[in-house]
Amino acid sequence: MPASTLRDQLHRDGFVVIRSLLPAPQVAPLRAAAAHAAALARSGGWPHVRTVGKQFPPWDPAEAATRGIWGVQGLNDPALHALLPDPRDRGALLRAYFGDEVLGVAAELMACDPNRDLVMELHNMLVAPPVDFALRWHRDDIPPEATAEEEEERLGVRRADSEREQWHTQWNLALCDGDESLIVVPGSHRRARTEAERGADPLAPSLPGQLVVRLGPGDAVFYDNNILHCGRYVAASARERLSLHGTVGRAGAGGKSRSDRARNVLQHGVGAWVDRCDFEALGQGEEEGEGERLRKRAEEMRARLVQLGRESGDVGYSLTG
């Protein structure tokens, strides 16, 4: 799909699905690495998790043993890599984030250079909880109590497409069959909520015009984080879910766009370990020069994130609950 078509679809619908973004030979070792990380987190061996019953950060790892988890944080954290049982896991997880497949699409959507302009952000994972669990309808960085006028301002409703800069993108990359957790309302990223949406129960089973995003192994959905969306999680006993959940930014944002991105990213605690990132395993087994190219990209992306953190200070949290 041409880049302009990808951007047009993102601007129009608020999301774009790409089938087989990762080929099967790349999915297999990545799924193994993801399964190892999920097992470690579920057993209490990795404390940076999303606990059932709480939608937004911060999460209390002490609650994981009794409530269970629905997410694993920090897939690029070297402390996690040191705990994984297979030495190949580290490279697989890093390659999934810094490789050309994901970042190539991200750069197209943001109309920028993947080797010069991208900012390292989040690399987490969404997993099946021990019991069925639903996230309420939300926009990631606009609180539900916002007025229609405030929503329109934050969403840039009155800006023409030519004036709508894309400073970040977000994705879910499925590694298992039957990934149907993400539900979106197409086009809602470009308007305030309707009266029906504003008055609906936050855990309403459906909203008018909703669409269930259905993904298979290697499929990805890239989406605007302020599209109206929710998540429905089926218990692990019925269906496993391993979905890489990442974000990446574009350098050059200023003012409110920059502070919004800083809050969205740094609220997840990445600043605590970004200085210790180790990309040595990135690109191992690739053709000569390929690993060096990927490691250089990763280091430069990390440096841009460090700069963002140093300039932003205490950013707080986007949403609560």
Structure in words:
- This protein has 321 residues and is an alpha+beta fold.
- The chain is 34% helix and 17% strand.
- It is built from 10 helices and 11 strands.
- Strands 1-9-6-11-4-3-2 form a 7-stranded antiparallel β-sheet, sandwiched between helices. A 4-stranded antiparallel β-sheet has the order 5-10-7-8, with no helix packed on it.
- The longest helix has 23 residues.
- The C terminus is likely disordered.
- This is Phytanoyl-CoA dioxygenase.
- It comes from Diatrype stigma.
SSE blueprint:
Layout: H1 3-13, E1 15-18, H2 24-42, E2 49-51, H3 64-67, E3 69-72, H4 78-83, H5 88-98, H6 100-110, E4 118-127, E5 133-134, H7 148-155, E6 168-174, E7 182-184, H8 195-199, E8 211-212, E9 220-223, E10 229-233, E11 242-250, H9 255-266, H10 290-312
Helix pairs in contact: 1-6, 2-5
